[in-house]
Amino acid sequence: MGLNKIYIIGHKQPDTDSICSVIGYAELLNRAEPGKYIPARCGEVSPETRFALDTFNAEAPVYVASVEPTVSDIPLDTRSARQDVPTIDVAALMDTYDMRNMPITNGDETLVGLVSEYGLARSYVRKNPREQLSLIPMPLETLARILDARIFVSSREALGQARVYTVIDALHVTLSRMTPDDIAIVGDNEPAQLALISAGVAALIIAEGAPVGERVIDAARTRGASVLATTLDAFSVGKMISLSLPASMIMETDIPTVRLDDSLEYAKSVVSNSKFRTACVVGDERQHIGLVSRTTLMQDVQKSVILLDHNEYSQAVDGIEQADILEIIDHHRLGAISTLKPVRFLNDPVGSTSTIVANKFIEACVEPTPSTAGLLLSGVLSDTMVMKLSTTTPADIRAADYLAGIAGVDPAEYGPELIRKGMDLDSLPKDELLTRDMKRYNLFGKSIMVSQVMASSFDFAETHAAEIRKEIERLRTTMGVDCFFALFTNVFSNASDLFAAGDEACIAKMDLRDQPVRLEGVMSRKKDFIPKFGHMFRQI
Protein backbone atom coordinates (compact mmCIF):
# COMPACT_ATOMS: atom_id res chain seq x y z
CA MET A 1 0.00 0.00 0.00
CA GLY A 2 1.58 3.25 -1.14
CA LEU A 3 1.43 6.36 1.00
CA ASN A 4 0.48 8.48 -2.02
CA LYS A 5 -2.78 6.53 -2.31
CA ILE A 6 -5.98 7.10 -0.34
CA TYR A 7 -7.96 4.02 0.60
CA ILE A 8 -11.74 4.20 0.71
CA ILE A 9 -12.91 1.41 2.98
CA GLY A 10 -16.08 0.21 4.65
CA HIS A 11 -16.63 -1.74 7.84
CA LYS A 12 -15.71 -5.25 8.88
CA GLN A 13 -18.09 -7.95 7.62
CA PRO A 14 -19.11 -5.62 4.80
CA ASP A 15 -22.59 -5.79 3.31
CA THR A 16 -23.57 -4.88 -0.23
CA ASP A 17 -24.03 -1.20 0.60
CA SER A 18 -20.57 -1.00 2.16
CA ILE A 19 -18.84 -2.62 -0.83
CA CYS A 20 -20.79 -0.81 -3.55
CA SER A 21 -20.58 2.65 -1.99
CA VAL A 22 -16.81 2.28 -1.69
CA ILE A 23 -16.51 1.44 -5.39
CA GLY A 24 -18.81 4.31 -6.34
CA TYR A 25 -17.07 6.96 -4.25
CA ALA A 26 -13.65 5.90 -5.53
CA GLU A 27 -14.87 6.31 -9.11
CA LEU A 28 -16.22 9.79 -8.39
CA LEU A 29 -13.02 11.03 -6.71
CA ASN A 30 -10.76 9.47 -9.33
CA ARG A 31 -12.46 11.55 -12.03
CA ALA A 32 -10.51 14.53 -10.65
CA GLU A 33 -7.38 12.66 -9.52
CA PRO A 34 -7.08 9.43 -11.54
CA GLY A 35 -5.66 6.45 -9.66
CA LYS A 36 -5.29 8.19 -6.33
CA TYR A 37 -8.31 6.64 -4.59
CA ILE A 38 -8.40 2.89 -4.04
CA PRO A 39 -11.64 1.08 -3.17
CA ALA A 40 -10.89 -1.35 -0.35
CA ARG A 41 -12.59 -3.81 2.01
CA CYS A 42 -11.61 -5.42 5.30
CA GLY A 43 -13.91 -8.44 5.13
CA GLU A 44 -15.19 -11.16 2.83
CA VAL A 45 -17.68 -10.53 0.04
CA SER A 46 -21.12 -11.98 0.76
CA PRO A 47 -23.07 -14.07 -1.79
CA GLU A 48 -25.48 -11.18 -2.28
CA THR A 49 -22.65 -8.73 -2.97
CA ARG A 50 -20.91 -11.21 -5.25
CA PHE A 51 -24.13 -11.45 -7.29
CA ALA A 52 -24.19 -7.66 -7.66
CA LEU A 53 -20.53 -7.53 -8.70
CA ASP A 54 -21.01 -10.31 -11.25
CA THR A 55 -24.20 -8.74 -12.62
CA PHE A 56 -22.42 -5.47 -13.37
CA ASN A 57 -19.04 -6.96 -14.34
CA ALA A 58 -17.14 -5.35 -11.48
CA GLU A 59 -14.17 -6.43 -9.39
CA ALA A 60 -14.38 -6.57 -5.62
CA PRO A 61 -12.44 -3.85 -3.78
CA VAL A 62 -8.89 -4.76 -2.78
CA TYR A 63 -8.66 -6.62 0.52
CA VAL A 64 -6.87 -4.71 3.27
CA ALA A 65 -6.42 -6.53 6.58
CA SER A 66 -4.93 -3.53 8.38
CA VAL A 67 -4.03 0.09 7.76
CA GLU A 68 -1.26 -0.01 10.32
CA PRO A 69 1.89 1.30 8.59
CA THR A 70 4.19 -1.42 7.29
CA VAL A 71 7.69 -1.65 5.88
CA SER A 72 6.22 -1.23 2.38
CA ASP A 73 5.16 2.31 3.34
CA ILE A 74 8.66 3.70 3.89
CA PRO A 75 11.44 4.47 1.39
CA LEU A 76 14.06 1.73 1.24
CA ASP A 77 17.73 1.90 0.31
CA THR A 78 17.84 -0.65 -2.50
CA ARG A 79 21.61 -0.66 -3.05
CA SER A 80 23.52 -3.92 -2.74
CA ALA A 81 26.74 -5.53 -3.92
CA ARG A 82 27.46 -8.93 -5.47
CA GLN A 83 29.30 -11.47 -3.37
CA ASP A 84 32.18 -11.68 -5.88
CA VAL A 85 32.89 -7.93 -5.74
CA PRO A 86 36.25 -7.13 -4.07
CA THR A 87 35.93 -5.88 -0.51
CA ILE A 88 37.72 -2.65 -1.35
CA ASP A 89 34.99 -1.86 -3.90
CA VAL A 90 32.28 -2.58 -1.35
CA ALA A 91 34.02 -0.22 1.07
CA ALA A 92 34.18 2.46 -1.63
CA LEU A 93 30.44 2.14 -2.27
CA MET A 94 29.71 2.42 1.43
CA ASP A 95 31.86 5.53 1.64
CA THR A 96 30.27 7.09 -1.45
CA TYR A 97 26.72 6.58 -0.21
CA ASP A 98 27.50 7.02 3.49
CA MET A 99 26.32 3.51 4.34
CA ARG A 100 27.33 1.65 7.47
CA ASN A 101 26.12 -1.66 6.09
CA MET A 102 25.98 -3.10 2.58
CA PRO A 103 23.72 -6.06 1.68
CA ILE A 104 25.47 -8.76 -0.32
CA THR A 105 23.66 -10.84 -2.95
CA ASN A 106 24.41 -13.71 -5.27
CA GLY A 107 23.80 -13.87 -9.00
CA ASP A 108 20.00 -14.06 -8.74
CA GLU A 109 19.74 -11.18 -6.23
CA THR A 110 19.19 -13.52 -3.26
CA LEU A 111 20.42 -11.99 -0.02
CA VAL A 112 23.42 -13.96 1.28
CA GLY A 113 25.07 -11.64 3.79
CA LEU A 114 25.98 -8.17 4.99
CA VAL A 115 29.27 -6.26 5.00
CA SER A 116 29.43 -3.88 7.95
CA GLU A 117 31.89 -1.22 9.03
CA TYR A 118 32.91 -3.55 11.84
CA GLY A 119 33.49 -6.37 9.36
CA LEU A 120 35.65 -4.13 7.20
CA ALA A 121 37.73 -3.07 10.19
CA ARG A 122 38.18 -6.67 11.23
CA SER A 123 39.29 -7.55 7.71
CA TYR A 124 41.80 -4.72 7.66
CA VAL A 125 43.25 -5.42 11.09
CA ARG A 126 43.90 -9.09 10.48
CA LYS A 127 43.38 -11.54 13.33
CA ASN A 128 46.76 -13.20 12.77
CA PRO A 129 49.57 -10.88 11.72
CA ARG A 130 51.73 -13.92 10.93
CA GLU A 131 49.25 -15.21 8.40
CA GLN A 132 50.61 -15.47 4.87
CA LEU A 133 49.28 -12.72 2.58
CA SER A 134 47.49 -14.28 -0.37
CA LEU A 135 45.52 -13.38 -3.46
CA ILE A 136 42.42 -15.04 -4.83
CA PRO A 137 42.01 -15.59 -8.58
CA MET A 138 41.23 -12.31 -10.30
CA PRO A 139 41.82 -10.49 -13.59
CA LEU A 140 45.10 -8.63 -13.81
CA GLU A 141 43.18 -5.47 -14.70
CA THR A 142 41.22 -5.71 -11.42
CA LEU A 143 44.39 -5.97 -9.37
CA ALA A 144 45.87 -3.00 -11.21
CA ARG A 145 42.74 -0.95 -10.49
CA ILE A 146 42.82 -1.82 -6.80
CA LEU A 147 46.50 -0.87 -6.52
CA ASP A 148 46.13 2.16 -8.78
CA ALA A 149 48.96 0.58 -10.76
CA ARG A 150 50.18 0.71 -14.34
CA ILE A 151 50.61 -2.57 -16.18
CA PHE A 152 53.95 -2.72 -17.96
CA VAL A 153 53.82 -6.36 -18.95
CA SER A 154 50.56 -8.35 -19.24
CA SER A 155 51.71 -11.90 -19.71
CA ARG A 156 48.55 -13.26 -18.05
CA GLU A 157 45.01 -11.91 -18.31
CA ALA A 158 44.22 -13.32 -14.88
CA LEU A 159 46.13 -14.35 -11.79
CA GLY A 160 45.29 -17.52 -9.91
CA GLN A 161 45.24 -18.41 -6.21
CA ALA A 162 48.60 -17.18 -5.00
CA ARG A 163 50.70 -16.29 -2.00
CA VAL A 164 52.09 -12.75 -1.93
CA TYR A 165 55.63 -12.02 -0.71
CA THR A 166 57.07 -8.64 0.20
CA VAL A 167 60.71 -8.81 -0.79
CA ILE A 168 62.67 -6.31 1.26
CA ASP A 169 65.76 -8.29 2.15
CA ALA A 170 66.86 -11.92 2.45
CA LEU A 171 66.06 -12.42 -1.23
CA HIS A 172 67.39 -15.95 -1.21
CA VAL A 173 64.95 -16.96 1.52
CA THR A 174 61.97 -15.65 -0.48
CA LEU A 175 63.21 -17.33 -3.67
CA SER A 176 63.40 -20.67 -1.87
CA ARG A 177 59.73 -20.44 -0.88
CA MET A 178 58.10 -19.07 -4.00
CA THR A 179 56.22 -21.09 -6.62
CA PRO A 180 55.42 -20.12 -10.25
CA ASP A 181 51.91 -19.04 -9.15
CA ASP A 182 53.07 -16.58 -6.52
CA ILE A 183 53.38 -12.80 -6.57
CA ALA A 184 56.23 -10.66 -5.31
CA ILE A 185 56.17 -7.07 -4.04
CA VAL A 186 59.52 -5.35 -4.51
CA GLY A 187 60.97 -1.87 -4.36
CA ASP A 188 63.65 0.00 -6.36
CA ASN A 189 66.01 -2.96 -6.67
CA GLU A 190 66.51 -4.08 -10.25
CA PRO A 191 68.74 -7.10 -9.43
CA ALA A 192 66.06 -8.39 -7.06
CA GLN A 193 63.39 -7.74 -9.67
CA LEU A 194 65.31 -9.72 -12.30
CA ALA A 195 66.04 -12.53 -9.85
CA LEU A 196 62.37 -12.89 -8.99
CA ILE A 197 61.38 -12.94 -12.66
CA SER A 198 64.04 -15.56 -13.38
CA ALA A 199 62.66 -17.64 -10.50
CA GLY A 200 59.35 -17.79 -12.38
CA VAL A 201 56.94 -15.64 -10.38
CA ALA A 202 53.46 -15.10 -11.82
CA ALA A 203 53.55 -11.35 -11.28
CA LEU A 204 55.89 -8.69 -10.00
CA ILE A 205 54.52 -5.60 -8.23
CA ILE A 206 57.04 -2.76 -8.13
CA ALA A 207 56.09 -0.43 -5.27
CA GLU A 208 56.86 3.11 -4.09
CA GLY A 209 56.88 4.59 -7.61
CA ALA A 210 60.17 2.86 -8.48
CA PRO A 211 61.15 2.92 -12.17
CA VAL A 212 60.59 -0.12 -14.35
CA GLY A 213 63.63 -0.76 -16.52
CA GLU A 214 63.68 -2.16 -20.03
CA ARG A 215 65.72 -5.18 -18.87
CA VAL A 216 62.98 -6.03 -16.38
CA ILE A 217 60.26 -5.63 -19.02
CA ASP A 218 62.15 -7.81 -21.54
CA ALA A 219 62.84 -10.48 -18.92
CA ALA A 220 59.22 -10.55 -17.83
CA ARG A 221 58.01 -10.99 -21.39
CA THR A 222 60.50 -13.78 -21.94
CA ARG A 223 59.63 -15.63 -18.72
CA GLY A 224 55.83 -15.02 -18.95
CA ALA A 225 55.58 -12.86 -15.84
CA SER A 226 53.30 -9.84 -15.48
CA VAL A 227 54.71 -6.55 -14.18
CA LEU A 228 52.76 -3.79 -12.41
CA ALA A 229 54.05 -0.57 -10.91
CA THR A 230 52.34 1.54 -8.23
CA THR A 231 53.12 4.58 -6.16
CA LEU A 232 51.90 2.78 -3.01
CA ASP A 233 54.50 1.60 -0.54
CA ALA A 234 54.96 -2.10 0.07
CA PHE A 235 52.90 -2.08 3.28
CA SER A 236 49.98 -0.36 1.55
CA VAL A 237 50.15 -2.76 -1.38
CA GLY A 238 49.87 -5.65 1.07
CA LYS A 239 46.87 -4.09 2.78
CA MET A 240 45.15 -3.35 -0.49
CA ILE A 241 45.64 -6.92 -1.60
CA SER A 242 44.14 -8.12 1.69
CA LEU A 243 41.11 -5.96 0.88
CA SER A 244 40.86 -7.41 -2.61
CA LEU A 245 39.19 -10.49 -1.15
CA PRO A 246 35.60 -10.89 -2.39
CA ALA A 247 32.79 -9.65 -0.19
CA SER A 248 31.69 -13.26 0.40
CA MET A 249 34.86 -13.86 2.44
CA ILE A 250 34.27 -11.10 4.98
CA MET A 251 30.47 -10.75 5.02
CA GLU A 252 28.39 -11.85 7.97
CA THR A 253 25.44 -14.14 7.44
CA ASP A 254 23.54 -13.83 10.75
CA ILE A 255 21.66 -10.78 9.51
CA PRO A 256 18.20 -9.66 10.68
CA THR A 257 15.50 -9.60 8.02
CA VAL A 258 11.96 -8.23 7.73
CA ARG A 259 9.30 -8.40 5.02
CA LEU A 260 7.34 -5.70 3.25
CA ASP A 261 4.11 -6.57 5.06
CA ASP A 262 5.69 -6.50 8.53
CA SER A 263 4.50 -3.63 10.71
CA LEU A 264 6.83 -0.72 11.38
CA GLU A 265 6.62 -1.48 15.10
CA TYR A 266 7.97 -4.96 14.46
CA ALA A 267 10.67 -3.62 12.14
CA LYS A 268 11.73 -1.14 14.84
CA SER A 269 12.12 -3.93 17.39
CA VAL A 270 14.21 -5.99 14.94
CA VAL A 271 16.49 -3.05 14.12
CA SER A 272 16.92 -1.96 17.75
CA ASN A 273 17.94 -5.50 18.76
CA SER A 274 20.38 -5.91 15.89
CA LYS A 275 24.11 -5.40 16.34
CA PHE A 276 24.06 -3.79 12.89
CA ARG A 277 21.27 -1.35 13.87
CA THR A 278 19.69 -2.20 10.55
CA ALA A 279 17.65 -4.95 8.87
CA CYS A 280 17.42 -6.26 5.32
CA VAL A 281 14.03 -6.40 3.62
CA VAL A 282 13.54 -9.65 1.72
CA GLY A 283 10.85 -11.26 -0.42
CA ASP A 284 9.32 -14.71 -0.21
CA GLU A 285 12.33 -16.33 -1.86
CA ARG A 286 14.75 -14.26 0.24
CA GLN A 287 15.45 -11.94 -2.69
CA HIS A 288 16.93 -8.63 -1.59
CA ILE A 289 14.47 -5.71 -1.68
CA GLY A 290 16.07 -3.02 0.44
CA LEU A 291 17.55 -1.90 3.73
CA VAL A 292 15.90 -0.24 6.73
CA SER A 293 17.77 1.57 9.48
CA ARG A 294 16.98 3.53 12.61
CA THR A 295 17.01 6.72 10.54
CA THR A 296 14.40 5.54 8.03
CA LEU A 297 12.20 4.20 10.83
CA MET A 298 12.12 7.58 12.59
CA GLN A 299 9.75 8.98 9.97
CA ASP A 300 6.14 9.64 10.92
CA VAL A 301 4.18 7.34 8.62
CA GLN A 302 0.39 7.18 8.30
CA LYS A 303 -1.88 5.69 5.67
CA SER A 304 -4.67 7.94 4.46
CA VAL A 305 -8.19 6.53 4.56
CA ILE A 306 -11.79 7.55 3.94
CA LEU A 307 -14.34 5.61 5.99
CA LEU A 308 -17.70 4.73 4.49
CA ASP A 309 -20.85 3.19 5.98
CA HIS A 310 -19.62 3.32 9.61
CA ASN A 311 -18.09 5.69 12.12
CA GLU A 312 -17.08 3.41 15.00
CA TYR A 313 -13.69 1.97 15.97
CA SER A 314 -15.27 -1.42 16.71
CA GLN A 315 -16.35 -1.76 13.07
CA ALA A 316 -13.32 -0.19 11.43
CA VAL A 317 -10.40 -1.90 9.74
CA ASP A 318 -7.56 -2.96 12.04
CA GLY A 319 -4.93 -0.29 12.62
CA ILE A 320 -7.37 2.59 12.13
CA GLU A 321 -5.99 4.30 15.28
CA GLN A 322 -2.68 4.79 13.44
CA ALA A 323 -4.21 5.98 10.15
CA ASP A 324 -4.90 9.48 8.89
CA ILE A 325 -8.70 9.63 8.54
CA LEU A 326 -9.55 12.21 5.89
CA GLU A 327 -13.31 11.82 5.62
CA ILE A 328 -16.25 9.84 6.98
CA ILE A 329 -19.53 9.22 5.12
CA ASP A 330 -22.24 7.30 6.92
CA HIS A 331 -25.96 6.93 7.55
CA HIS A 332 -25.89 5.24 10.98
CA ARG A 333 -25.91 6.60 14.50
CA LEU A 334 -22.87 8.52 15.73
CA GLY A 335 -20.11 6.32 17.07
CA ALA A 336 -16.94 6.89 19.03
CA ILE A 337 -14.30 7.64 16.39
CA SER A 338 -12.20 10.67 17.27
CA THR A 339 -9.49 12.35 15.21
CA LEU A 340 -6.55 14.64 15.98
CA LYS A 341 -7.48 17.10 13.26
CA PRO A 342 -10.74 18.22 11.64
CA VAL A 343 -12.09 15.91 8.94
CA ARG A 344 -15.01 16.04 6.53
CA PHE A 345 -17.88 14.17 8.15
CA LEU A 346 -21.20 13.55 6.44
CA ASN A 347 -23.84 11.59 8.33
CA ASP A 348 -27.19 11.63 6.53
CA PRO A 349 -30.13 9.62 7.95
CA VAL A 350 -31.07 7.99 4.66
CA GLY A 351 -31.49 4.30 3.91
CA SER A 352 -28.00 3.61 2.56
CA THR A 353 -24.55 5.06 2.07
CA SER A 354 -24.94 4.32 -1.64
CA THR A 355 -27.74 6.93 -1.68
CA ILE A 356 -25.33 9.53 -0.31
CA VAL A 357 -22.69 8.64 -2.91
CA ALA A 358 -25.29 8.80 -5.71
CA ASN A 359 -26.25 12.29 -4.53
CA LYS A 360 -22.59 13.31 -4.62
CA PHE A 361 -22.46 12.31 -8.30
CA ILE A 362 -25.55 14.43 -8.93
CA GLU A 363 -24.15 17.43 -7.01
CA ALA A 364 -20.87 17.20 -8.94
CA CYS A 365 -22.74 17.02 -12.27
CA VAL A 366 -20.89 13.79 -12.99
CA GLU A 367 -22.66 10.66 -14.22
CA PRO A 368 -21.43 7.29 -12.91
CA THR A 369 -20.62 4.57 -15.41
CA PRO A 370 -23.47 2.09 -16.00
CA SER A 371 -21.56 -0.54 -14.02
CA THR A 372 -21.05 1.73 -11.01
CA ALA A 373 -24.64 2.97 -11.25
CA GLY A 374 -25.78 -0.65 -11.06
CA LEU A 375 -23.62 -1.30 -8.01
CA LEU A 376 -24.85 1.81 -6.20
CA LEU A 377 -28.41 0.77 -7.03
CA SER A 378 -27.62 -2.63 -5.48
CA GLY A 379 -26.43 -0.89 -2.33
CA VAL A 380 -29.62 1.15 -2.06
CA LEU A 381 -31.91 -1.84 -2.70
CA SER A 382 -29.99 -4.07 -0.29
CA ASP A 383 -29.93 -1.67 2.66
CA THR A 384 -33.60 -0.69 2.23
CA MET A 385 -34.79 -4.22 1.42
CA VAL A 386 -36.14 -2.98 -1.91
CA MET A 387 -37.64 0.07 -0.22
CA LYS A 388 -39.50 -1.99 2.40
CA LEU A 389 -37.53 -0.98 5.53
CA SER A 390 -38.76 1.85 7.70
CA THR A 391 -35.41 3.57 7.20
CA THR A 392 -36.24 4.16 3.52
CA THR A 393 -36.51 7.86 2.67
CA PRO A 394 -37.66 9.79 -0.42
CA ALA A 395 -33.97 10.43 -1.11
CA ASP A 396 -33.40 6.66 -1.46
CA ILE A 397 -36.28 6.34 -3.90
CA ARG A 398 -35.00 9.25 -6.01
CA ALA A 399 -31.47 7.83 -5.98
CA ALA A 400 -32.70 4.38 -7.04
CA ASP A 401 -34.67 5.86 -9.96
CA TYR A 402 -31.66 7.92 -11.06
CA LEU A 403 -29.25 4.96 -10.87
CA ALA A 404 -31.66 2.49 -12.50
CA GLY A 405 -31.97 4.78 -15.50
CA ILE A 406 -28.20 4.81 -16.03
CA ALA A 407 -27.73 1.09 -15.34
CA GLY A 408 -30.70 0.05 -17.46
CA VAL A 409 -32.16 -2.07 -14.66
CA ASP A 410 -35.72 -2.39 -13.34
CA PRO A 411 -35.43 -2.16 -9.51
CA ALA A 412 -38.72 -4.02 -9.01
CA GLU A 413 -37.33 -7.07 -10.82
CA TYR A 414 -33.66 -6.86 -9.86
CA GLY A 415 -34.18 -6.00 -6.17
CA PRO A 416 -35.96 -9.20 -5.01
CA GLU A 417 -33.50 -11.34 -6.99
CA LEU A 418 -30.58 -9.56 -5.30
CA ILE A 419 -32.08 -10.06 -1.83
CA ARG A 420 -32.75 -13.76 -2.41
CA LYS A 421 -29.07 -14.31 -3.30
CA GLY A 422 -28.13 -13.30 0.23
CA MET A 423 -30.64 -15.61 1.91
CA ASP A 424 -29.18 -19.07 1.39
CA LEU A 425 -29.10 -19.57 5.14
CA ASP A 426 -28.66 -23.37 5.21
CA SER A 427 -25.28 -23.16 3.49
CA LEU A 428 -23.66 -21.25 6.37
CA PRO A 429 -22.53 -22.50 9.80
CA LYS A 430 -24.62 -20.97 12.59
CA ASP A 431 -21.70 -18.97 14.04
CA GLU A 432 -20.91 -17.40 10.66
CA LEU A 433 -24.57 -16.74 9.97
CA LEU A 434 -25.00 -14.92 13.28
CA THR A 435 -21.79 -12.89 13.14
CA ARG A 436 -21.59 -11.74 9.53
CA ASP A 437 -23.88 -8.74 10.21
CA MET A 438 -23.76 -7.74 13.84
CA LYS A 439 -23.15 -4.51 15.70
CA ARG A 440 -22.24 -3.66 19.26
CA TYR A 441 -24.11 -1.03 21.28
CA ASN A 442 -23.75 0.40 24.75
CA LEU A 443 -27.15 1.29 26.17
CA PHE A 444 -27.54 2.70 29.66
CA GLY A 445 -24.55 0.84 31.05
CA LYS A 446 -25.30 -2.42 29.23
CA SER A 447 -23.14 -3.87 26.48
CA ILE A 448 -25.26 -5.55 23.82
CA MET A 449 -24.66 -7.17 20.43
CA VAL A 450 -27.37 -7.20 17.79
CA SER A 451 -27.12 -9.59 14.85
CA GLN A 452 -29.50 -9.37 11.89
CA VAL A 453 -30.18 -12.15 9.40
CA MET A 454 -32.35 -11.40 6.40
CA ALA A 455 -34.71 -14.20 5.32
CA SER A 456 -37.50 -14.71 2.79
CA SER A 457 -39.71 -16.50 5.35
CA PHE A 458 -39.90 -17.48 9.04
CA ASP A 459 -39.27 -21.16 8.31
CA PHE A 460 -35.52 -21.16 8.98
CA ALA A 461 -35.80 -19.46 12.38
CA GLU A 462 -38.60 -21.79 13.49
CA THR A 463 -36.87 -24.96 12.28
CA HIS A 464 -33.47 -24.13 13.83
CA ALA A 465 -34.69 -22.33 16.97
CA ALA A 466 -32.89 -24.60 19.45
CA GLU A 467 -29.57 -24.36 17.61
CA ILE A 468 -29.88 -20.58 17.34
CA ARG A 469 -30.57 -20.15 21.07
CA LYS A 470 -27.57 -22.33 21.94
CA GLU A 471 -25.25 -20.47 19.57
CA ILE A 472 -26.21 -16.96 20.70
CA GLU A 473 -25.63 -17.95 24.32
CA ARG A 474 -22.15 -19.15 23.34
CA LEU A 475 -21.48 -15.95 21.40
CA ARG A 476 -22.65 -13.81 24.33
CA THR A 477 -20.14 -15.52 26.62
CA THR A 478 -17.33 -15.47 24.06
CA MET A 479 -17.78 -11.79 23.26
CA GLY A 480 -18.28 -10.73 26.86
CA VAL A 481 -21.50 -8.78 26.31
CA ASP A 482 -24.47 -8.48 28.67
CA CYS A 483 -27.02 -9.43 26.01
CA PHE A 484 -26.87 -10.91 22.52
CA PHE A 485 -29.87 -10.40 20.23
CA ALA A 486 -30.47 -12.09 16.88
CA LEU A 487 -33.09 -10.70 14.49
CA PHE A 488 -34.29 -12.99 11.71
CA THR A 489 -36.03 -10.46 9.47
CA ASN A 490 -38.61 -11.62 6.92
CA VAL A 491 -38.18 -9.05 4.18
CA PHE A 492 -41.47 -9.94 2.53
CA SER A 493 -43.66 -9.95 5.69
CA ASN A 494 -42.54 -6.75 7.40
CA ALA A 495 -41.64 -8.53 10.64
CA SER A 496 -38.73 -10.12 12.51
CA ASP A 497 -38.29 -13.11 14.82
CA LEU A 498 -36.17 -12.24 17.84
CA PHE A 499 -33.82 -14.52 19.79
CA ALA A 500 -32.08 -13.23 22.93
CA ALA A 501 -29.37 -14.42 25.33
CA GLY A 502 -28.66 -12.68 28.63
CA ASP A 503 -28.96 -13.02 32.38
CA GLU A 504 -32.29 -14.39 33.58
CA ALA A 505 -33.44 -11.13 35.16
CA CYS A 506 -32.82 -9.18 31.97
CA ILE A 507 -34.61 -11.71 29.76
CA ALA A 508 -37.57 -11.83 32.14
CA LYS A 509 -37.80 -8.04 32.40
CA MET A 510 -38.06 -7.77 28.62
CA ASP A 511 -40.53 -10.68 28.45
CA LEU A 512 -38.30 -12.77 26.17
CA ARG A 513 -38.48 -16.19 27.88
CA ASP A 514 -40.37 -17.83 25.01
CA GLN A 515 -38.35 -17.54 21.82
CA PRO A 516 -38.47 -16.64 19.08
CA VAL A 517 -40.61 -13.56 19.68
CA ARG A 518 -42.41 -12.22 16.63
CA LEU A 519 -41.90 -8.44 16.28
CA GLU A 520 -44.37 -7.01 13.78
CA GLY A 521 -43.14 -3.99 11.84
CA VAL A 522 -39.54 -4.43 13.02
CA MET A 523 -37.37 -4.40 9.91
CA SER A 524 -34.52 -2.08 10.81
CA ARG A 525 -32.03 -2.71 13.57
CA LYS A 526 -31.19 0.95 14.07
CA LYS A 527 -34.61 2.53 13.49
CA ASP A 528 -37.04 -0.09 14.82
CA PHE A 529 -35.29 -2.44 17.22
CA ILE A 530 -32.75 -0.26 19.06
CA PRO A 531 -35.17 2.60 19.88
CA LYS A 532 -37.80 0.17 21.20
CA PHE A 533 -35.51 -2.02 23.30
CA GLY A 534 -33.31 0.91 24.32
CA HIS A 535 -36.19 2.21 26.39
CA MET A 536 -36.46 -1.20 28.07
CA PHE A 537 -32.77 -1.09 29.05
CA ARG A 538 -33.37 2.27 30.66
CA GLN A 539 -35.78 0.53 33.08
CA ILE A 540 -33.48 -2.39 33.95
Automatic annotation (TrEMBL):
It is an enzyme of class 3 (hydrolase). GO terms for biological process: methionine biosynthetic process. SUPFAM superfamilies: CBS-domain pair, DHH phosphoesterases, HprK N-terminal domain-like. Its cofactor is Mn(2+). GO terms for molecular function: inorganic diphosphate phosphatase activity; metal ion binding. Keywords: Amino-acid biosynthesis, CBS domain, Hydrolase, Manganese, Metal-binding, Methionine biosynthesis. It catalyses: diphosphate + H2O = 2 phosphate + H(+). Its EC number is 3.6.1.1. It holds the Pfam family DRTGG. This is inorganic diphosphatase. It comes from Methanoculleus formosensis.
